Amino acid sequence: MNRTTLSLIAGATALAAVTGFASLNAPAASGDNTAKAAAQQPVERTSLLCPQPSTSEIAETAYTSFTPVTQGAVDSGKAELQAATQESADSTSGKKTGKKTVKPALKPAEPGKPATGDGSGSEPSALVGTAEGKFAPGWTVQETTAVAAGTGRGLLGTNCTAPDTEFWFPGVSTATGRTDYVHLTNPDDSAAVVDIELYGKDGTLKSAVGEGITVQPHASEPILLSTLASGQQSDLTAHVTVRSGRVGATVQALDDKIGGDWLAASTDPAGSLVMPGIPKDATAVRLVAFAPGDQDADLKIRLASPSSLITPAGNETLHVKAGMTAAADLGDVTRGEAGSLVVTSTGTSVPVVAAVQVVRGKGDKQEMAFIPATGPVGARATVADNSFKGTTLALSAPGQTAQVKVTASAGSEGGTAATKTYTIKSGTTQDVDAPVPAGLKGTYALTVESVSGGPVYASRTLASAKEGVPGFTIQTLPDDRGTVAVPEADQDLSVLLKK
Predict the structure, then answer these.
(1) Considering 42, 45, 137, 212, which has the largest number of Cβ atoms within 10 A of its Cβ?
(2) Residue 133 Cα distances to 4, 83, 109, 483, angstroms
(3) C-alpha 456, offset from chain centre
C-alpha cells in the first residue's frame, strides 16, 4: 500500500505556505547556502474514511475520535465526520447542485480528550472525516459495531483509514458460509475508478467484473467479492488498485457460524512481517500469505511468546508460489500465552503480504477477528474506544529489546490521563497491564510512543462476551505519521515576496 498519503504532502505544503520557508538552491549555490536538514513538523490536515457499518436492524455502532496533544501543533483547527453523500443533480437541467448538507456525525471539541458519536437517527452510512490544525497530527477514529445475532454476529471493529491508491487483503473468501465485501469510499469531488483482483491457490481468478469500478464523488460502494469470480474458494487475496482518484478500502467479512469482523489492509509487501497480539485463548489461528512478485517465497514461521521466539511444531515454514495465495492452519498456537506471529522470507528476501484469522470459543459459541501484517509503532501510535474492562494491549519486540511509553487519555466523559513505561525484551510479546485514567467515565484512548531500542509492534483487543459468545475485535497500531519532514532553508522567501 502507498502508506505515504496525500495528507502528509498536503501537510508539508501547508507548513511551507504558512511559514514562508522553502528549500531552494540557486544553480551556483555552494558552501553555507545549502538547505539545512529536514525537521519533523506536525501535519496540518489529514483525512479518514469510515466504512458503512452493518445494516442489520439489531446492530449498534459507536464512533470514537481522538487526537493526541502534539507539541508544536498550531493553536486552532477543527475536525468532523460526515456521512458520505453523492452530489445531487438538478432534475431538469442535469447540472450538479452541490453536496447535500449533512449534520456531522461526530465533531471533537479538543485534542487529548475522546469524542464519541453513534449512527442513531439515520441510515447506516460510510463517513468522510477531515481534521485540520491542532486536530490533524495523529488523528484516529474507531468504528465499533455490536451485532446480536445473524450472519456476522459479534463485535466488529476497525480504525477508519486514510485514502490511498493501493490495498492488499490476504484472508478474504468466497467460500460457502462466508460473505465478504470490499467497502470503497471516495472522499473527493471527482469519481474514482478502481480495479479489484482476486488471487487463490492457483493464481489469478479471471474476471472482468472487477475492472473499472466507478465510485462516485463523496460516495461509498460495497463490492460483494463472490460476484467477481465464479466458484467458491477460501484463502484468497484481494488486491485493490485505483486507476484515477483515491479511495478508502476495508473488507467486511461475515461468517454464518463464527461471526464477523473487519479485515484491514496488510502493510506493504516485505520480506519480514509481524502480526501482533494474537489472543492467548485463541482456539484457531490461520495464516494467509501472498507473494505478489515473480518469485516464490519460503517463509519461516515463528511465534514471539512472552519468553522468546519459538517455532510452532509442524508449521516451521510455508511455501508461497509467485502470484498465488498459501495458507497454514496453526491451531491454538499461543497455548494460553500472549503471542505475535513473525514470518520471514528465507534465502533471497521475497516480498509478501499476510494476515491471520483468529477464532476464540468452541462449537456454536465461536467468534472471529483478523490481524493483518502491520508496521511498527514508530514515533507514536494511538487506538481509541477502550474501556475499563475488555481492553488488552499487546506489545511485541521481535528484534532488539525496546522501551515504550503508554498514555491513557482522559475519559470521554471524565477522568485524568495516566502514563506507564514498559520494557519489552527481545523476541517477546507481552500483554501489558495498560494504564487506565483515574476516575474514568466513558471511553479512553491509548497512545504508545517509542522511547528506546528496537521497533515495537502493537495491537489492541476489545472483548465483549454476550450469551456465551466471546465477541472480540483486534486493531493494530502502526505509526500515526502525525509529523512530516519539512526542510529548513537559509533564505526567508516571504521577504522576497514582499519586494
Answers:
(1) 137
(2) 19, 22, 13, 12
(3) 16
CA–CA separation, 368 vs 156, rounded Å? 9
- Dist. CA 36–CA 84, nearest whole Å: 42
SS3 388: coil
Share of the chain residues as helix, strand and coil, in percent rounded to the nearest 5: 5, 50, 45
Question: Cα–Cα distance between 179 and 260 in angstroms, integer?
Answer: 9
Confirm if 196 and 251 have CB atoms less than 8 A apart. no
Q: For residues 187-214, b (16+ Cβ closer than 10 Å) or e, as one string?
A: bbeeebbbebbbbbeeeebeeeebeebe
Residues 6+ apart with CB under 8 A from 487: 22, 23, 35, 36, 37, 38, 39
* pLDDT, tens digit (0-9, with 9 covering 90-100), for 18-61: 333 232 232 333 334 444 567 889 999 999 999 999 888 888 99
Rounded distance, CA 446 to CA 450, Å? 13
Residue among 185, 102, 100 nearest 141 (CA): 185
Inter-CA distances, 297 with 57, 112, 293, 316, Å: 45, 44, 9, 14
- pTM of the predicted protein model: 0.88
Looking at residue 456, its amino acid is: V
Bridge partners (DSSP) listed for residue 77: 133
Round to whole Å and give the CA distance between 68 and 56.
Answer: 33
Q: How far apart are CA 306 and CA 283, in angstroms?
A: 18
Rounded CA separation 480/360 (Å): 29
Cell 469510499 found at? 185
Indicate the SS3 state at residue 101.
coil
What's the rounded Cα separation, in Å, for the pair 66 and 396? 24
**Is residue 117 within 8 Å of residue 105, measured between CB atoms?**
yes
Give every residue of the chain whose pLDDT is below 70, as ranges: 1-37, 86-102, 119-122, 488-499
Instruction: Give backbone dihedrals phi and psi of 31, rounded to 5 degrees, phi first.
Output: 60, -125
Residue 270 has what pLDDT? 97
Looking at residue 14, its pLDDT comes to 40
> In 205-247, which ranges are E strands?
213-215, 219-224, 236-244
Q: What is the pLDDT of residue 491?
A: 52
- 301 vs 329: CA distance, rounded Å: 12
Q: Of all helices (H) and strands (E), which one includes residue 88?
A: strand 88-89
Terminal alpha carbon distance of the chain: 44
77 dihedral zone (left: phi>0; alpha: psi -120 to 50; beta): left
DSSP for residue 264? P
Nearest CA among 221, 224, 141 for reference residue 179: 224
